[in-house]
Each structure stands twice: as C-alpha cells, then as structure tokens.
Model the fold of this input.
Amino acid sequence: MIELKNISKVYRIDSVRVEALKNINLRIEDGEFVAIMGPSGSGKSTLMNIIGCLDVPTSGEYYLDYVNVSEYSESRLADIRNKKIGFVFQSFNLLPRLNAFSNVELPLIYSGNTKNRKERVISALKAVNILDRANHRPSELSGGQQQKVAIARALVNEPSIILADEPTGNLDSKAGEEIMNILTGLNEKGITVVLVTHEDSIARYARRIVRLRDGEIVDDRRIKEEPGDRTVKNKEVKGRKQFLLSFGELVQSMKMAIFSIFANKLRSFLTMLGIIVGVAAVIIMLALGSGAQSQITSNISKMGVNLLMVRPGGQLRGPMRGIDASNIKMLTTDDAEAIKREVAEIDEVCPSVARGYEVVYGNKNTTTTVNAVTPNFILIRDFPVQYGEFISDEDERYLRRVVVLGKTVKDALFGDEDPIGQYVKINRQTFQVIGVMSEKGVVGFGGNIDDAVYIPLRTGQKRLFGIDYITTLFIKAKSQDVMDRAIAKITKLLRERHRLRDTDPNDFNITSQKDILETVQSTTKTFTLLLAGIAIVSLIVGGIGIMNIMFVSVTERTREIGIRKAIGGKQIDILSQFLIESIIVSLSGGLLGILVGVTLSKTAGNLIFQWQTLVTPKSILMSFGFAFAVGLFFGFYPALKASNLNPIEALRYE
Done:
C-alpha cells in the first residue's frame, strides 16, 4: 500500500525556487492500476520518482506498507527498488554494453539471488515475448523490443509494484498497444501498476486516473472496478547486507570493467602507460641495485670470508685524541708469529708490506703495487697462480729477487709474450719473473687485485724497502663462527705486546671481511631502495592519471550509475564496480610493466651499465603490490564519488 501525506517537492535553480509538487495527498491500494496524467511540467514524473524511492520530498510523509520511507537507510531503499518495485522508463534505460539477457539479469545479481538465476531470466524474457533476442545488445533492438527487455528486467525479481514512466512515449501505436497489454496482464496477476502518461488512449488501460496540474492533484477518479477474483501480490522485502559483495556481483563488476576498458582502448592504454613505466622503472632499479650488491658481495667474498686484516694505527678521530702519531707502535713479524702461536682460532698468518713502484720491462713500464708477502699468501687470499709458481720458503729464506706478476701488470708489460724467466726492474733492482697470478678482478671497495706484483717479504724489507716492520697482517680464521673470538684474542695479545695501558686506545686496527661485507650490503641496499623510491614517483604520476581517467569515466557513465541504482544497485555495488575497473587498469599496467622491466633489466645491465642485473621474485611482488595499491588508492575517491551520486540526478544527467 502506497500513501502520500502533504508531499511537496521544491527545486532550487540558482536563486529561482520551483515548486514541482504542492501538498500531494494520495493513497494507492495493493493491486490497483493507476494512471497519473497531466501536461508537461505538471509534476507527474517527480511524483513517480518519489513513489519509486528514487527521489525524496522536500516536505510531507511517504508511507510504503505502513512504514515511513524517510526512516529507511539508503541501503534499505536500494533493496526496495530492487525487490519490491520494478521500473519501466520511457527511454528504456538499458545498459548499452550488455545484451538483453545480462540487462534482465542485473537486478538478480544486485539482490544476491543465485538460485535458478538463468531460468528466471529466461522466464521473464518469455513473459514479454523477447527471448529470441536475448543475446542482442540494445543498439540491435527496436524501440518496442527494448521496452520489452526493460519490462522483463522490472519483472525478474517478481516485484509487487510496477512503475512505468511514459512506457509508450517512444514507440509506435502497435508496439505501444503491445506494451500496455503486457502491463494490463501483470496487473491482472495482482501486481500494482502505476503509470505516468499524457495520452488518454493509454490512460484508459488503467482502472483509476489521477490528474495533476502545476504540481497539484486536480482530479482523482476510478474508471473501472477492480476485479474481485485475483490474489493481490504484496512482497516482503528482505535486505542484503551492504558490506557483502556476492560472487555474481564481483563477476559482473569485473565484466563491466573489462567492457569499459576495451570500449576506450587507446585511452585505457595511455592510462596504463604511466603504470607500465613506473613498474618497469622499479623493476630495473631494483635489478640494477640487487645485481650491483651481488657482484660486490661476490668480489669481496673472493678475498676470503674468513679474512682478518690487522694494520698499525688506531681508528682515531679528531686531533689523534692525545696520541702522538710518531710514537705509534708498528707491526712486526714477531707479532705475526705470536698470533699464529697463541691464538687457536687462527689457521694462517701472512705479514705483508705494500708500496707503489714503477715496474720496467725493456721499453715498457707501469706503475703498480708491490706486495712483499710470505708463501702462504695464496692460501689466505684464495688466490692461485695461473701458471709458473709462487714464492717459496727458499725464496723467502735466501732473499731471492723473484717476482710474481698480476694479470694486469703481465698484460701491460708482456702482452701475449710468455714472461716466465724474463727479468723486470723494480726501483732499479732486477727481479726474475717466476709466475703469473690468475685473474681475480676488482675486489673490495674498487681495488684491482690484478694490478699488483708479489715478491718475498724479507726481500722486500731488506733489499727493496729498507724497513724492518710490516704494514698489514692477513689472518685466516678457522671459520666465520670464531671470528669474533679471534678478534678479541688478537686485540688482547697485541695490547700486551705493545705494552698499552687500560686507558690507552689501540695502536692498531682490525678489519674483517665480514664487517666489510655487511657494510657494503647495507650501503647497496640503501642505494637500491633510493633508486626504487625515485622510480616509485613515476608510479604515483601514473596513479594520478588513473584518478583523472576514472573521474572522466564517472562523468561519462553518470546515467548508467543512475540506472544501476534504480534497479537496486547499492553504494557498495557502484563503489566496487569503479574500484575494480581502476584496479584492473593498474594491475594490467603492472603486469605489462613487469614484462618490460624484466626484459630491459636484462639488456640494460649488460649493454649500458656493464654489470650483471638481478631480478628477484621479491622485486616483482613488490612492483605488483605497488601497482595494486596505486589502483586501489587513486581509484577509491572517483569510485566513492560515483557511489554517492543521487539516483534521480544521475538518471537525468545528459
């Protein structure tokens, strides 16, 4: 039962006040067939929209089934429009991207009804004799056929009220008569029919005519008696919780999102382009950073992960903290022997002295590092000889002038010539070449270990450098697990040997490859994240593009939103539809961006940056996650705006 008490509706256009309805009092019983007539501008469509819960009155009360409609929430009103009221519009209001079957199915999806959905759609189409056109889109149907589809859509949820606004206005007389016969038949089955028309020939199908003029009822008369041999249909509406989205609604939203994307292919691709560039940039930056970190880590590991290096001089800051630098105790071979003898966690100790000299062969020369070391150097540094031999204990004992060349020095002085047995000059002293080291490349913080030569330690101290101390102790611990303990024992031993008081700082420093490795990894990780952060800026720009296009899409499809709300679409339904569209665009761009990023990172590392790139699953997941987050974040506000549109204003949008 429908009852309106003192209903008024006032529109304000700028400063102009327009009264569309004035104190309307109207009561419509269940099962009636009522025609609302009046000239254009009389307020009949406004009255119909208020009865259909599409619009709200400015004042007055509207009761539906004895309940004041103003007490209903927006979600409850959507349930009523979906299940109790079926709308038939003059302009049909079918969704152009869906075929007839899908248009009729839409109210069932919004109701969350999954039981016998296909059979119910077919039954509704059969009821209006349009089943043979079920797979055709509205543009492929005549006006009469489109109106039949609209009636089938209104019937599919078995409503108790049909509201028809000028249902024959855009049809020829034959199609109009067919539509009116269908509405009459529905009324005879007990469905309440309220019809808006300005034609007397159409109004005569009704049993009661209400006439409006200038927003007021001027006449209300019954022209036919209601039949007494029928069952009046009054359906109880059970609401669906608004925060739940059914599987059917999700599929429908995805389908509509895909339709919308493909309907504007170029625009959609240009929207995706920002995401593609952003994701690809993130992938490439992370791949370059991870590759650099992996390469540096590998190079440092070549020096031996169990390596400790002891050098004279503490890690001082400021003005030497009161220490006289000239009195710093230098390291000696006795220190090396003591460490080897007394620290059980140690495998090998190699004392070393390094100085820069020019090495000459014939008319060729090169400036390099001359390392005076003991024979166990190659064991500690895991640095084998490529050919020839390394320094022996006899070379060390007899102070022989022999030299082993690094690969870079060998290439500079000898090229393709075999250097074994040849003589070179170091600081005007002659040394015989006995071996060439294998190629190891850049290790540590940019040092090229191949750009060096190696001579016996005592030869270097006594014959070349003229010193009795050493500059570095290379120490190999038994394992990584004992390195901290080894460092503690070496520190204690050297402090005792150098007679340092408890308050004195160390006059030596100990560095481990583990510390260097951790520092490098931390630094490169920070650098990688910085690069990724810069790349993410382009993702944000792409997200702004998505937001802009989604606003355009909402504006273009405002009428579609009104149609969906008129047949029972709730805020969550509209919000989900546009949000899913935004996410699909973003994720599609993300997937293409990942493909582009992986491809370019493989080529960029080798061709441009000259180092290996490393694409990790973590970087791909992170990029994909960012793409999803961008679509969700930048699509939410346009989707929220769409979901909050007033249904009647959306339907009137041109």
